[in-house]
From TrEMBL:
<dbReference type="Pfam" id="PF00528">
    <property type="entry name" value="BPD_transp_1"/>
</dbReference>
<feature type="compositionally biased region" description="Basic residues">
    <location>
        <begin position="1"/>
        <end position="12"/>
    </location>
</feature>
<protein>
    <submittedName>
        <fullName>ABC transporter permease</fullName>
    </submittedName>
</protein>
<feature type="transmembrane region" description="Helical">
    <location>
        <begin position="85"/>
        <end position="105"/>
    </location>
</feature>
<dbReference type="InterPro" id="IPR035906">
    <property type="entry name" value="MetI-like_sf"/>
</dbReference>
<feature type="domain" description="ABC transmembrane type-1">
    <location>
        <begin position="78"/>
        <end position="258"/>
    </location>
</feature>
<keyword id="KW-1133">Transmembrane helix</keyword>
<comment type="similarity">
    <text>Belongs to the binding-protein-dependent transport system permease family.</text>
</comment>
<keyword id="KW-0812">Transmembrane</keyword>
<keyword id="KW-0813">Transport</keyword>
<feature type="transmembrane region" description="Helical">
    <location>
        <begin position="126"/>
        <end position="153"/>
    </location>
</feature>
<feature type="transmembrane region" description="Helical">
    <location>
        <begin position="240"/>
        <end position="258"/>
    </location>
</feature>
<feature type="region of interest" description="Disordered">
    <location>
        <begin position="1"/>
        <end position="20"/>
    </location>
</feature>
<dbReference type="InterPro" id="IPR000515">
    <property type="entry name" value="MetI-like"/>
</dbReference>
<keyword id="KW-0472">Membrane</keyword>
<keyword id="KW-1003">Cell membrane</keyword>
<feature type="transmembrane region" description="Helical">
    <location>
        <begin position="200"/>
        <end position="220"/>
    </location>
</feature>
Amino acid sequence: MSTRHSRDRPRPRAVPAAAARGPAPLARPAAVLAAVLAWWLVCDVLARDNAVLGRMGPGPTAVAVWDLLQERSTAVNAAASLRRLLTGLALAAVAGVPLGLLLGSRRLLEHATAPIVAVLRTTSPLAWAPLAIVLLGVGDAPVAALVALAAIWPMTLTTAHAVRGLDPAALQVVRSLGASRVEVLGTVVVPALRPHVLAALRLALGIGWVVLVPAEMLGVDSGLGYAVLNARDQLDYPRLAATIVLIGATGFLLDRLLQPPTRTGGGR
C-alpha cells in the first residue's frame, strides 16, 4: 500500500543547472565591454573624420568625464536636476495616487473619463512647455511641472489598476467588523497598494528623468540638461558626450535605488 502511494506522489521538478547557478557573473561586464567596443568602432574607426562623432569616442569622453567630476559646477547642476525631479515626482504622487484611488473605485467615472485620460497621457509633456513658462515663469517651477505632467499618469493608472485588483472578500470582512472607511483604507487598501505604488514610482522616475533633461534646456541656467546645451554651444563635443554619460549613469543609479530587493536563499 505504501509503495503504491509513494509511486503516486508527484516527483519534485528538477531545477535546470543554469537556473540553479543563477545568471552568469560575467554576462553584464561582457555586455558593457561590447557596448564600449561598438562605441569605439563607430566614433574612432567609422566616423573618425567626422567633426562631431570623431571627437566623441570613449577615450576623449573618459577624459572629459574625469574633468567634469572634479568641477564644482557638475555637483551644482546635478543637485539642481535632482531637486526638480524630486519636486515633480512628489507633485505627481500627491495628485496621481488619490486620482487613481478615485478612478479605480468608481467604474462609471473611469469609463466616462477614459477618453480625456487617454488624450492627456499621450500628449507629450514638452508640448506644455510654452504654457508652463508663461504661467510659472522661468526657473525650477516650470521644469518640475513638466516632470509632474509626465509622471502623474504612471502613478494614476497603476494605482487604479491595483485598486480594481483588491480582494473583495478582504474588504467585506473588514467592513463587517464595523471598520470605518479610514480604517479600511489603512488596514487593507494601503498595504495592498504599497508595492504597486512603489513600482509606479520607479516607472514615473524613469519617465520624469527623460523629460527633465530637455525641459532644462528652456530658460534655466543650471541642471544637467543646461550643461548639455552649454557644451553644444561651446562646440565642446567630448564634454557633451561626457555629460550624456553622467546623465545616463545618474538615471541608472536612481532606478537602482527604487528597485525592489531580490530575495536570496532557498527557503520557502
